[in-house]
Every structure is written in C-alpha cells, then in structure tokens.
From TrEMBL:
<comment type="similarity">
    <text>Belongs to the glycosyl hydrolase 13 family.</text>
</comment>
<dbReference type="GO" id="GO:0009313">
    <property type="term" value="P:oligosaccharide catabolic process"/>
</dbReference>
<keyword id="KW-0378">Hydrolase</keyword>
<protein>
    <submittedName>
        <fullName>Glycoside hydrolase family 13 protein</fullName>
    </submittedName>
</protein>
<dbReference type="GO" id="GO:0004556">
    <property type="term" value="F:alpha-amylase activity"/>
</dbReference>
<dbReference type="InterPro" id="IPR006047">
    <property type="entry name" value="GH13_cat_dom"/>
</dbReference>
<dbReference type="InterPro" id="IPR017853">
    <property type="entry name" value="GH"/>
</dbReference>
<dbReference type="Pfam" id="PF00128">
    <property type="entry name" value="Alpha-amylase"/>
</dbReference>
<feature type="domain" description="Glycosyl hydrolase family 13 catalytic">
    <location>
        <begin position="15"/>
        <end position="419"/>
    </location>
</feature>
<keyword id="KW-0325">Glycoprotein</keyword>
<dbReference type="InterPro" id="IPR045857">
    <property type="entry name" value="O16G_dom_2"/>
</dbReference>
Amino acid sequence: MPSTAPWWRSAVIYQVYIRSFADGNGDGVGDIAGIRSRLPYLKALGVDAIWINPWYKSPMADHGYDVADFRDIDPLFGSVAEAEALIDEAHRHGIRVIPDIVPNHTSDQHVWFQAALATGPGSPERERYVFRAGRGPDGAEPPNDWQSCFGGPAWTRLPDGQWYLHLFAPEQPDLNWEHPDVLAEFKDILRFWFGRGVDGFRIDVAHGLVKHPELPDLPPRKDPSAPPLAGSIDHPHWDRDEVHEIYREWRKVADEFPGDRSFVAEAWADSPERLAAYVRPDGLHTAFNFEFMMTSWDAPALRETIDGSLANLGSVGAPATWVLSNHDVVRHPSRFGREPVRKWLPNEPYRPEGPLDLELGTRRARAAALLMLALPGGAYVYQGEELGLPEVEDLPEEALQDPIWERSGHTDPGRDGCRVPIPWSGQRAPYGFSPDDATGAPWLPQPAGWHALSVEAQTGDENSMLELYRRALHLRRDHPALGDGSLTWLDAPAGVLAFRREPGLACVVNLSAEPYRLPEHTAVLLASGPVEDGRLAPDTAVWLEL
C-alpha cells in the first residue's frame, strides 16, 4: 500500500549546485538548460527531488547568494520562463523542485539597498537594513566586534559616516527582520515561486535573520580555542528564539498551497535540542543534520549522533535528515581519507589536515552512503558524491573565486574545491559538462584524471560508486523497511554499527580494523564492498534481508 505520509519525511533530495552541474549554452557555467538536459539521469538515479542553489538575479559576488532580485532569474542561468519549464518537466519525471531562498541578506545592488544608500542616514529606507553609527570620538570604529563569516569585520563604513552590517561579504548587507516590510516582502516572494510550482525552499542561514536589538559585542567563549563564530545559547546574531516567529508565518504561507509544500532549514544550532526548535509542528518541516556531517568515521560517535538526532527531532514529530557533503564543506571521501585530529565545530570553515589516503576515503564513503540511506528519515546527496568525487585540493590560486580567499588574506582557499564542475563523459575536460561547441572553459578547472570518474565511465560498472548509489536509491524506494520510521540497534562488538529496520532489514557497518562475521540473514541485498565467507571487511557496509 502506498504511503500516505508527506513526501518530505523520507525523500532523497539531490543538491544541484547550478554553476557546476551541467552547462547548456556552452559559456562554461552551469544553467537551467543544463539541468533540464540531465533530468533523465536524475530520474534513473532514483532521487525524489532536486534542491537548486540560488538562481536569482545577482552580481555574483558570492556566486548567487547575493541576490539583487528574488523574482527574477539571473541571465547567466536562464529566465523565469525557463525556470517554469524546468519545474514542469521535472514534475513530469516525478522529481520535485526546491530552490534556495536567502533571507538573511540581499545584494548591495538590490533596489532596497540602493535606495538606502541614496537617501542617507535616518531615512526610512535605511531601516530595512542594519545601519549604525560607529564607536569612538569620530565614529571610526565599527559599532561592535562582530566578525564576518568570510573573514574580517562584519561592518563596512560608508562615506556619510554610518556603518552597515554584513555577516558575510560586504556586498551582502544584512536585512533588518524587525521591520515589517521585510517579512511582508519575503511572504510575497514565497507566494511568487509557490505559484509557479516549486515544491518548497531550502532556507539559507536559517539560524540568522534576527539580531539582538542592542547589538552587543560577542560574549566570551567558554573554550578560547573554539572558532569565534561558534554558536551559543544567547548569541547576539545566531539562533535567537525570535527567529521562530518568522518561520511560523512562513509555514502559514506554505500551507496556503496544495501538495505538501515544505521548507528545509540550513540551521547551525548549538545543540540537537536547539535544532529541534526549528521543526516544531507549526514551524519548518525539516532541518539539515549538520551534527551527522561533522561526525568523524568513528562507531561510538556516529551512534551517539544518530541517537541524539532521532530522539530530539522525534520529540517534536519531525523526521531526521542526513547529509554527508554539500557546497560549503570538503567532500567526504577527502575527509574520511584522513585521520581526524580535532573536533569539527559549528560555523567553522573545516579544513582536513594530514596526508590523504583517497582509496581509504573512498571505501569509507561507499560504506557511509549505505549507512546514511538506511537511516530513518530523509537524505541529501550532493552532486558528484554519487560519482565518488574527491575534493580538488590543488586548484591554482589564480582560479580561486570564493570570497573567503580574498577576505582571509589568501590564507583560506575557501570552498571552490568542492564546487568544481562534475564530469559526465569523454576523456578530457570539460568531460561533457559543456557541449562540444562550447565557447568558454569550465568556470573552475577540472582535474586531468576525472575521465575515470565520469558518469559515462561508471555506468554499467557494478563496482563503481555510481552503480552503488543507483542500486541503493532504488532499493530504498522499493523496500518497505527504508525511509521514514524507526530503528532498533542490534548487539555488535566495538567498532561495528548494526541496526534493524522493519520489516526485515538490517544495516551493518564495520568501522573496526578487523573483519566482522555477519549475523544470520536470508540474503545480502547490497554491500559497499565484497562480503566473503559471511565476513564483512573493515570500512564496509551491508544491507541484509532478515
């Protein structure tokens, strides 16, 4: 009997970083035409929906997260008409569409901010943003000690003497969510796109938006070695309780439309309990589980994270979501191929350290995929992870485009290494990312060896990462034990995770250094590596029919 639960409780959602997915017009940058051309691939892969990173009109200071017009598509990617055609075509393939929404800030080219600059201090136009006088006798010091996520102060001074807040790049001024115009505007933006058929939104920096009204300095950190942007229960600009009032209003807008429209929050919270507050019944539907993504390849740590996530999200009736990589972090084969040397903390620009064993990292990534896709709830797949793409760690400095590179004084290469255009076919760049008659090279250079990782090269190879993902996603959709629900842990020795999903499926992951003899079972449904003589090799996972 088909499930009557909302689709988002168990969906596998594929993240499309639009610049790097598929280039339809040959200019070296991915676009809507490219996405449309690859919809058959996504349907065959077995995903339920796609999340598309920002496609709105933008000067591209932060690759689209600086939005100049939320109701228009940037010409680099296409047009509103093309977006509507994509939504309609995706729906015919049985794939839902979830664009990004960026409510914490706009572009400095947005009509509102341009009006604020033109009208000057004290004007109503400036009240939609966070403008303040500086400190010190001549106001030459920033209003407080807040720091930009991209490095340096979170304030920029204008020629008229006032400062404006930007928790990201200077080209991304923060909105003032205390102003009624801001809430009204975003409710109208949501209706604009819901009316064009989108199935939900991924909310960028969902834990931001609301700032302490007095804009105090950052509180002292309990751990002086922790990064300055780590969250706290009473942080002046992250995860403030008032943000939930905004999302209650958004939920009402989503409920105006048929078809289980939904939101997923990019919310970095200080604890699982704080995260659960975003997905209460009258709030958002789901939230990214960054705690899972930040956990090392360690059995006790993973079990603790899984238990905490299920318990805290379950306490408010929300499903868990699981994610291994995205456009902001080092790809997980390159993380798992190194020994962890320290705790990865929220809001930290994570950089793995030490020598890379990519063969080990890839083996662990295969096992992690089966672990993630067997857990209760939904899952996110970042484009290229189904190909086993590693982080590109040797991009030439002249190719780096992430604003973190400049804002850090060329000390942090930023996130470009996980954003390199993915390979589709052929023996040399652009590997089918762009058409044969392309006039522009890919916006980031692709490694010479990526022909072996292309969709074309992996298709039909039963040992490839791509075929593992295809089999896992189709089994996940067809098997009644997988998707939303609960799990029961099975007895297992140290270093082994084993749990049961009803009816009649077990997932076993061997994170130890020794082979593990599998429990009694009737069949091996899928394994991330060879299962010989009933023994599961280290860094290998298996789905068993019980």
